[in-house]
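pasting for ref
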Amino acid sequence: MIGIIVIVTLIIAIAVAFLCVKVFFRRNGSFSSQHIHDSEAMRERGIHCVLDQDREMRQRNRLAVSERSK
């Protein structure tokens, strides 16, 4: 049981070290943004973030409801 815990801890430590290599060893190193709206290829295809799509649909529905109530 102790051996498995040691092995798992070692694997997690190695994974974290690999993730941090760019941050620690490069000048101004940082993780690149993983958001869809920050991707130029996604913007060119017209693909939006779920939050942006939800906001657009809520604005459209609000207009549709106000037009119906007139």
